[in-house]
Amino acid sequence: xxxxxxxxxxxxxxVPKGTTAAGLASDLVRVGLEEExxxxxxxxxxxxxxxxxxxxxxxxxxxxxxxxxxxxxxGPEHNETEGDGAGSRGIVCGAHNFGVGxxxxxxxxxxxxxxxxxxxxxxxxGHVSDGMICSQSELGLGEDHSGIIVLDDAxxxxxxxxxxxxxxxxxxxxxxxxxxxxxxSMRGVAREYSHSTGAAFTDRALELGARVPxxxxxxxxxxxxxxxxxxxxxxxDRFVARIVRGVDATAASPAWLSKxxxxxxxRPISLAVDVTNYVMLxxxxxxxxxxxxxxxxxxxxxxxxxxxRMTTLDDVDRALDVEDLLIxxxxxxxLGSRPIGIAxxxxxxxxxxxxxxxxxxxxxxxxxxxxxxxxxxxxxxxSEASKRFERGVDNRLQAVAAQRVVDLLVELGGGTADDTAxxxxxxxxxxxxxxxxxxxxxxxxxxxxxxxxxxxTLRSLGATVEELPDESAETTGRHAASTAxxxxxxxxxxxxxxxxxxxxxxxxxxxxxxxxxxxxxxAPAGRGLTVKQQRRRRVANxxxxxxxxxxxxxxxxxxxxxxxLGLGEDxPRRRAVRLQNPLAQxxxxxxxxxxxxxxxxxxxxxxxxxxxxxxxxxGSVTRPDGALGSSPLPPPAVLPDGGTLDSIRAxxxxxxxxxxxxxxxxxxxxxPGAQARAYEAADAVAFVREMARAVGADVHVANDPGHxxxxxxxxxxxxxxxxxxxxxxxxxxxxxxxxxxxxxxTVALEVDLDVLFVAAPAEPRQVGSLSTFPPAKEDIALVxxxxxxxxxxLDVVTAAAGALAEEVRLFDVYTGANLPEGTRSLAxxxxxxxxxxxxxxxxxAVRDAVVAAAGERFGATLxx
Length: 864
What we know:
The chain is of the alpha+beta class and 864 residues long. Helix 6 crosses helix 7. The longest helix is centred in the last third of the chain and has 19 residues. 26% of the residues lie in helices and 25% in strands.
C-alpha cells in the first residue's frame, strides 16, 4: 500500500499547515482512498541534533573491543561550557565508519528513541558518555545498525535532526483499489486530495513535459517485437530511452531524497537507483537505469524463448516462460539475444549500475498490464514496478518521468544530459471517447445531478467533454431519454474508464457518497414464501429442533467414493457427471447422493474428537437420466442466441433436491433421571416419518435388504402411495463404517424432497375444530407372522381405527417361547378422541375393528 508523507504531498497540492495524518485520511476517504494505517514508528522526542566530530580517540579495551572516545560540536546551545570539554560534548561510540570532520546525528540526554529507548548521561569504559551517536536502526529509519549515519551536505552543528530526517512526521498509509493505480504516486494522491478539498493542484508533469526534447536519429536503438500478444494486446507500446553521461555513480543521495524514500517504505541504495525509485513514487512511472557501457544496441523488447534463463538483480537464476516479456540487447550483432531485464518486473545483473559506471541509460516504458501481472505472479516477484504496471500506468508519462530522472542525475550526480540521443518508440493510442448522457448518473443513483454538475465533475477529473448538438445526440448517445448528450474522453492516467457506468461511478464519488441517501427498498406485495419454500423450511426446522446441525459440503466426489459406499456395478448412482475443470483433481465428479459428501463431514468431526454427531444437509445432487453430453460453450463477449441457450439448458442433467442426515454416538446424554441412549435405526426412520407428517405426505415404509450403503437388515425404504421412491433410512453397513473410519452402528437417512413434496397435498390441509374432550387410550398386541413388515401392520391398524384415531404408534416388538413358532408380537398404542367423551364400548369397538382387519389381512390374532 502507498505511503503518503504530508510534506512530500505539498510538492503537488496546497495542503494547509497543521494538517495531520488523521486529517489527511479523513479528507482522502471522501474520494474513496481508505486509511490503512498511520505510521508513527520513527517518532522521536527530545533533543536530536546534528553534531560534527572534533576529536576521535580509539581506545582498546580488556575484552579486545576498541571503542572511540569522541568530542563533538553539537551547537552552542548544547555544548558543555566548563572543564576540558568546553565547546563540545564527550560521547563513547563503538562504531568505526566515521571520522574527524564528519557530521553525524546525536541523541542528547532527554531524548527518547523508537522503542521507548530513553537517552541519559552514563559512565562507561572509563568515561561519562553524554549522549549517543545514532545509526539508522536506532532511529527507526531502517535495519542497518552496523554503522553511524554520516550526513552529506549537513547543516551547522546543533540543527534539529528530527525535522531534517523527517522523524517527527506521521506518514499515512492508504488502501488503493486495483482500478485506481494512478494513486500509487504522490501526483495521483495529490489530485484526489484536490478533488476532496478543492485545494489548488499543480501538475508537475505538465511543467516537465514542456522541457522534454524531441526524439533524435542518434538515440539508442530500440525495437518492440512481440510475437505472442496477450488477449490481442502487444506487450509494450512505448519505450523511451535517455542518456546521461559523466555521472558520479558513487555520489551519495542527499538527505532529503533518502528521507523521502524511507518515509515511503523504501531503502536508499545508490544514487541512480534512488533517483529512479523517487520519480516512480512521485509521478507513478516505473523506470530502470542501465550501465550504458554494458549495453549493445539495439535494445529489443520481445517474449522469452523456450528454455531461456537470466539472473535478476536479486541474484536469482530464473527459468523464463514463453509468455514473459523481456528487455534484451544484442551483443556481437545477434539481435535481441541477451535478456537484460524482465519487463516491468525486475532488471538483470549484467547491466546493473555499479561504482565504475559513468554513463547511464534511463528506460521509461509502457507495458501491457496483463503481461506484467502474469509474469510477476509466475516468478513470485511482486515488485514496486509490477504493482503499478499491472494496475495501469499513464501512457503519456514516460518521456516526462525520464526527463525528471535526467534532471536529478545532472543535479545530484554531476552528469550531463545527452540531448542528441533521445529515443521514443511510441505506438500508444489515445483513449476512446465515450458517448454519455449526463442524466444517466441521476437515474442510476437516485440523486438529482444537473447536466452542468456532471460535466464540470468530469472535466475536473481531467477528462475532455465535448457537448454534442441535439441532432447528433440520437445516434451518438447511449440513452435516448435525454436531449443532453456529450462525448467524454478520459485522461490518459485513467485507463479504467471505458464505459458510461465508469463515468457514473466517478460522478458519484467526486460529488460525494454522503449525498447518496440510504433508503431500504419497500417490499413488493406478494404471498411471501411459496408452498415449496415453506415445506423446505419446515423439514429443516424439524431436524434443527431435534438437535441436529445443518452443514454445507462441496458437491464434488472422488472416483472411488462409490466403491467405498459399496454401490453395486449396476447401481444408477454410479453414473456421475465428470467436470472438465474440477477444483481438485482427486474429486472430479458431481455427487449423485448427499451421503457421498455428508459422510465426509461426519468423518471429519469424529476425527477431531467429537463423539456425538448429528448433522444434516439440504442440497442438490446430479442425476443424469439420459445421454451424457457436453454443454456448448458460447464465445466470450457474444450474446448467445435462443438455440444455444436451449442447448445449454438441455445439457444440464437432473438435479433433484435432497435432505440427508448422519447420526453418530448418543442421542440422549445421561442425566438425573435419564439414561444415556445411542442413536439407532429407529431414530432415522422416525425422522423421515416426522418429515412426511410435517408436509402432510402419506408414505409407506418397508424393509429394503439390498440398498447400499445401509445395513441389509436395518434399512427402511419409503415410498409414496403410487410407489415413487421417497428415500431410505437406517443403520449403515459395517463394511462402510469400517472403510470410512466411523463408529459402529452409525445411522443415516436420505430423502428426495422433490418426490416428498409432490406426494403432499397441493394446498395446505384445512384443520378442523379441535376436540375439547379427553382422549382415551387403548393398547393392542397382535401376533403376526414374523415375515410381515411392521409398517404394513401399522398402516392396517391406523386405517381400521378410523376417524377416532388421533395417534397410532408401534411401541414394542416381542418374540419369545410363549409365541407360536414363526410369529412375533407387535404392540400398538392408540390414542382416541371424539366429539364427546368416549365410553368403554367405543374403545372396545375400535379394538375389535383393528383385530378383525389385521386378522383378515395378515391372519393376526390378539395376544392374550
